[in-house]
Structures
1.
Amino acid sequence: MTTQLEEQTTNVVGARMKRVEDPRMITGAAKYIDDLKLSGMAHVAVLRSPYAHARIRGIDTSRAEAHPDVIDVFTGKDFEHLNPLPCAWQAGGVENFVATPRTLEIDRVTFTGAGVAAVVVETRAAAEDALSLIDVRETCGVLAATAEAIGDRQVRNRGTIGGSLAHADPGADYPTVITALGATVVVQGTGGEREIAADELFTGVFTTALEQGELITAVRVPALGAGVGAAYEKHRHPASGYAAAGVAAVVKVDVGKVTEARIAVGGVTGTPVRATAAEQAMIGIAPADEAAIVAAAGKVAEGLSGAIGDTYATGEYRVHLAQVLAKRALTAAIEAAA
Ligand SMILES: Cc1cc2nc3c(=O)[nH]c(=O)nc-3n(C[C@H](O)[C@H](O)[C@H](O)COP(=O)(O)OP(=O)(O)OC[C@H]3O[C@@H](n4cnc5c(N)ncnc54)[C@H](O)[C@@H]3O)c2cc1C
C-alpha cells in the first residue's frame, strides 16, 4: 500500500497534466444562465423574511414600482385567491399535519426565509436591486430582534419565551423588553386563568409572581402605534451571550417632540427596572437633540441601586453600561419611530 502511494506521488508531482475542464470555462467563452436572453424572458426576485416570527404591519412597494426597470411587483395579497398552494404531502394524508403553504405571506411570517414580496425585472441584477426598494414594516420588530440577540443558535433553537420569563434570569433579554413594551403575561393554573403585567411578574433573582402549578400560556404585547419606535441594546457576556446589561426603550414622537417614553434596564439588578427618571427627562425633547438624550440616559442610574457584581462585571460597571446602552436604545427607538 505504502509502495503504491509513493509510486503515485512520484508520478504526479512535477509531471505535466492535461487539464480536464471544458476549455470554454477557462477561456471565458462559456455561457451562463445570466447570458441567456430569450424573447419575453424576465427574472423574479423574492424578498424573504429575516425573522422566524413577525407580524407584517404593511408593505410599501411604491418605490420599487416606480423604478424604470421593474416590470411588476407582487405581495401576498395578489395571490390570496391561490392559497393554500396544492402540495404533494397534503395528498399523502400525513395524520394531524395541516400545511397551509402560501406563495407569499400576507399578515405574518412563521419561519425565516418566508417570502413576503416579489419583483419581476428584466435582468437578475436589477431584480436584486429592486428588492432593496421594498419597505416592510412589522408590528413589533424589537421582539424579533431581541430573539436574535439571545445566546447562540443552539440556545435559540431550544429556549422558549415562556421558559425565559418563568426562569427570570437577571441577564435574560425578554424580561427587559416585555417590561418596556408594557406586555401582559397570560397564566393558566388549576384555579383558572389570570393575567400579570410584565411590571409585576419579576419579583427577584430567578423569582416571579407565578404560583405553584401555574403555566405561562401567552404573552400579549400591545402593537406599537403610529409614531412609536422601540429598540433593545445589550452588552453580551462573552461566554453565554446573557446581558451583562440590557436596555429596552419605547418612544413616541409626535409633531417634532417626544411625547411618551418607556425605558427598562435588565442585567444590572435582580429584576428588570423601569427607569422612570429617564423616561420623564425624555418628554418634550426634540428627537434630534443628542445632548438631551445623553442627559436622559444618564438618569437611568437613579433607579439602579443594589447592582449585581461578579467576576465579569462589577455593579458599578453595569450601571455605567446601562447609561451607554440607554443612549443607544433611545436613539434607535427614535429612528424607528420616524
Ligand atoms: C448557554 C446559554 C446561553 C444563554 N444565553 C441567553 C441570552 O443571551 N439571553 C437570554 O435571554 N437567555 C439566554 N439563555 C436562556 C435560554 O434562552 C432559555 O430562556 C433558558 O435556558 C430557559 O430555557 P427554556 O425556555 O427551555 O425553559 P426550561 O429550561 O424548560 O424552563 C425554565 C424554568 O421555567 C419553567 N417554565 C418553562 N416554561 C414555562 C411556562 N410556559 N410557564 C411556566 N413555567 C415555565 C420550568 O419549569 C423551569 O423552572 C441562555 C441559556 C443557555 C443555556
Note: The two ends are 71 Å apart (CA to CA).
2.
Amino acid sequence: MAAAIGIKGHCAQCDMTFELKPWQLNAIAVDIPFDCTYCHCGLQLCCHKQLRQFRALDQWALVRPSMIMLTCATLVVALVAEWLGLLSMIAQFNLSLATVLIHFLVVRYARHRQRMTLELQVISPLPVEQLARIACARLSQQ
Ligand SMILES: [Zn+2]
C-alpha cells in the first residue's frame, strides 16, 4: 500500500476529512476498525463499492512503472527504426512525441483514479482486543 498516496477518509461522526496514514490504510485493507484522528470514534469502511475501488488501487499503482517501461521501449524502437531507414526522421519524431504524450495522459489518469475519499462509517465502541490491535499497528509504524 506504500504507493497509494492521497487517499482521504471522511468521518461520519465528526464530519472531518483527513489524510489516511499507512497504518490506517492497512487497517482498511484487512477490514479492521480504527479510530478517527479527530473524534477517536471507531471507523470502518462499510461501502462495498468503495472497498472494491480501494482494493483496485494496487493495480493502479502498477500503471506508472509499466508505462515508463513501455514508453522507453517505444522510444528505443522508433530510434532504431530510424537508424535502419524504416522510418523518416519526421515520422520518428512524431512517433516519439505521441508516445510521450500518451505516457503523461495515462499516468495522469491513473493518479486521478488513485485519489479518493473514503466514506468511513462509525461502528459501535471498540472492544478492548481491537483497541490493543490498533495500538500494536500504531507502534509497528513508528
Ligand atoms: Zn471523527
Note: The mean pLDDT is 88.
